[in-house]
Specification:
The chain is of the alpha+beta class. The chain folds into 3 domains: 282 residues, no CATH class; 114 residues, no CATH class; 61 residues, Orthogonal Bundle (Arc Repressor Mutant, subunit A). It contains 15 helices and 17 strands. The strands form 4 sheets. Strands 1, 2, 6, 7, 8, 11, 12, 13, 14 and 15 form a 10-stranded mixed β-sheet that branches. Strands 5-4-16 form a 3-stranded antiparallel β-sheet, with no helix packed on it. α5 runs antiparallel to α6 and α12 packs across α14.
């Protein structure tokens, strides 16, 4: 019997707000533990919450970016559970009337365009951070109460590749939309992964297993693949899948049982009595819609249609918002989009990778890249020299023109100098000359290399080629 997997994701995303969801405390990643707290986020009796308007705006804008319906009326609920990461023993969330309903993403999965649908997006508050050490568990409430939205997909994915493509697209859209920085290392994007397996052709889904609180895309892929294999093997041997919550051991690459899965009634949801419902007008929704930014797919299309870049370049440049924004600023200072693209995809990405920098930290600014490109386009320096200038600025800083002058990189286009180097190369290398005369025109490249070597890379390659062709053709 053949089996198929069904996967759904519940993705929690921390929003870019100045304060927490229901109090005025700020949040600072890496701050000293329990320094950004107040009676509200510490759950003191009698402390009353207040809604963060910006968080609601960002949640609704996320919904618009994902083609959700924005509810004109939504309300708050208490999700009751006893655990140290929630001091008041309940989480303020949205159970049955969320801010956003429906929605979808169109995602490229290994060259195939797939549509993954959403059930909902709801607003809630984050939990504190637990740290387990030998003999004790420590709780830092700085993160408690920060603005958090949960994007719930339908069970519409069927492989780890589907899930990864969905998450990568979702992360990219949230970054471009300025909803969140989505930094996994800072806990700004985490997913609960629901996996079930059933015989092919069976309509009913199999028993669902949830793998909790994963912030690594690589581990999510491993966990899904392990869980599909585990459930399939269990069914093939005549066993049954138990609905449960499991964790993932990244060292062993295995999931492990944590507890029997709770159902909604286990959390004893009931309406939050301290907060009024949220009412959103059609006019407000349309105002938010008008403020939505250009998305990656739209930017890729523009790069191809308006800048004339290849599809590959457009895809690489838009994969990361910070890189794409940097490129956008460079294009304000140069019209040579292909040259700028080559430098960003080549020199910039190589040097950033080698030195583990972010592009915002680079000493090469968009303006300086444009200056380098202008020097190349004016044939003042060669492309190779331009790459050297780029690397010098990246490592040490400086101004392109000054570096060219100090390093003596100015390209030689003087005919007399070029002809002298060409004559020397032809005289010293009779064999490639004879090969050229015999019809092997590719042998000119060897002579070209000799001229460039003699000029120490300063000769204008195009001019050198013209001089060599003129002289060699005279022999034929």
């Amino acid at each position: 019997m053949k089996y198929e997997a069904t996967i759904g994701l519940e993705t929690h995303i921390m929003q870019k707000t100045a304060s927490k969801m229901f109090c005025a405390c700020e949040y600072e990643y890496g701050a000293a533990p329990n320094t950004h707290v107040c009676p509200v986020c510490l759950g003191y009796p009698g402390a009353l919450p207040m809604m963060n308007e910006k968080a609601i705006e960002l949640c609704c804008k996320a919904g618009l970016l994902l083609d959700c319906e924005i509810n004109s009326h939504s309300k708050w609920d208490r999700k009751n559970y006893f655990y140290p990461d929630m001091a008041k023993n309940y989480q303020i969330t949205q159970a049955d009337e969320p801010l956003c309903l429906g929605g979808h993403l169109e995602v490229d999965v290994n060259g195939e365009l797939k549509t993954f649908t959403l059930e909902r997006i709801h607003q809630e508050e984050n939990a504190a951070k637990n740290t387990h050490v030998a003999g004790a568990s420590l709780v830092d409430y700085n993160r408690a109460g920060t603005a958090l939205m949960e994007i719930v997909s339908n069970p519409c994915m069927h492989s780890s590749e589907d899930a990864l493509a969905y998450l990568a697209s979702l992360k990219q859209i949230m970054e471009y939309g300025e909803i969140s920085d989505c930094n996994p290392e800072k806990g700004q994007i985490r997913s609960d992964v629901n996996v079930s397996v059933r015989p092919v052709g069976q309509k009913e889904l199999g028993s669902k297993v949830e793998i909790k609180n994963m912030n690594s895309f690589a581990f999510i892929q491993q966990a899904i693949e392990y869980e599909i294999d585990r459930q399939t093997s269990l069914l093939e041997s005549g066993g049954a899948i138990v609905q449960e919550t499991r964790g993932f051991d990244s060292d062993r690459g295995e999931t492990f049982s944590q507890r029997t899965k709770e159902n909604a009634h286990d959390y004893r949801y009931f309406p939050e009595p301290d907060l009024m419902p949220v009412k959103i007008s059609t006019e407000q929704v349309e105002l938010w819609r008008s403020e939505l930014p250009e998305l990656p797919v739209q930017r890729r299309t523009r790069y191809v249609n308006e800048l004339g870049l290849p599809e590959y370049d457009a895809g690489v440049l838009t994969a990361d918002k910070a890189t794409s924004d940097w490129f956008e600023r460079a294009m304000q200072h140069t019209k040579n989009a292909k040259a700028a693209s080559n430098f960003v995809m080549g020199e910039m990405m190589r040097l950033l990778s080698e030195q583990d920098f972010s592009i915002s930290e680079s000493k090469v600014t968009p303006e300086k890249l444009a200056e380098i490109i202008a020097l190349i386009d004016a044939k003042t320096i060669s492309t190779g020299a331009g790459k050297q200038v780029f690397e010098i600025i990246f490592n040490e800083g400086g101004e392109p023109k000054k570096i060219v002058e100090e390093k003596g990189m100015t390209q030689v286009s003087d005919d007399s100098a070029l002809e002298s180097w060409a004559d020397d190369a032809i005289a010293a290398n009779p064999r490639p000359v004879e090969e050229y005369k015999a019809g092997n025109t590719a042998s000119i490249n060897f002579l070209m290399g000799q001229v460039m070597k003699a000029s120490r890379g300063k000769a204008n390659p195009g001019a050198v080629m013209q001089v060599l062709k003129k002289k060699l053709d005279a022999f034929c």
